[in-house]
Description:
Blueprint: E1 10-13, H1 19-30, E2 34-39, H2 62-69, H3 74-82, E3 86-91, H4 98-111, E4 116-119, E5 127-128, E6 149-150, H5 153-180, E7 186-191, H6 203-223, E8 228-235, H7 245-251, H8 263-274, E9 285-288
Parallel strand pairs: 1-2, 1-4, 2-3, 4-7, 5-6, 7-8, 8-9
Amino acid sequence: MINPQLKxxxxxxxxxxxxxxxxxxxxxAAQGAKVFIQYLCLPGQSPERDAPGxxxxxxxxWGLYRARQARNxxxxxxxxxxxxxxxxxxxxxxxxxxxxxxxxxxxxAAFGPVEVLVNNAAHCDHDTFLPPGSRRxxxxxxxxxxxxxxxxxxxxxxxxxxxxxxxxxxxxxxxRRHLARGAHWGRIISxxxxxxxxxxxxxxxxxxxxxxxxxSRSAAKELGPYGITVNVVSPGPIQTGYISRALEKEVVPGIxxxxxxxPEDVADVxxxxxxxxxxxxxxxxxxxxxxxxx
Length: 294
């Protein structure tokens, strides 16, 4: 029997109102961890925020994904409570640096010092170096997503504010509190993408995730002497709602294991990296994509 020794540990998970974050929250709770969820409801088609009785799209695609982004985290918390677990949540925009310390304060008030940090919150829009009207990209919605637009200062800054700056500040705040209380055990896991090294059509998203990976490698070196491991999971195509049936047919042939990933596939690896079984693993990037990237 494998015992991950996570019972009673306090885990702070960002972006956990849907998708990989929600699956990760449930996975930690199933191991007896106390879970504090950060989330941010983004504009979209949501029964919670739009007209009464409005339903989310049934078919996967960009509309369903945006609808899920607009959810709050109440359902995830309720599911954890129904299973006998402990969870609380708070809505906060991590693009505002002031919210970083407040988020840790709220988690500590609910459950005690944070021992596991999962940096999952992300901003993702589609931008490109190509100008409008070019052969490959244009400003009208493309066949899979909501449109691809030329990179601007604003599109660059929005991605880096969440995907790299907020992650760096979260890790620094985690480390500061860890050292202040003289702790000797800690886990940080950040979620990247297997397109981080170069992501045509999503150039700012890929670049900001590459920065996240660099921050994480530096953190592993600096924080290891204090008992903190720092690792990165790099998901391949995960069906969080955005992959349409048409896109699935294009993507799956490039996945050796022959299917799209599910959020739980990534969540299980995140839990492993927080577990006692991964005590000698730090500074690593693990692809979780069925062989999509090797």
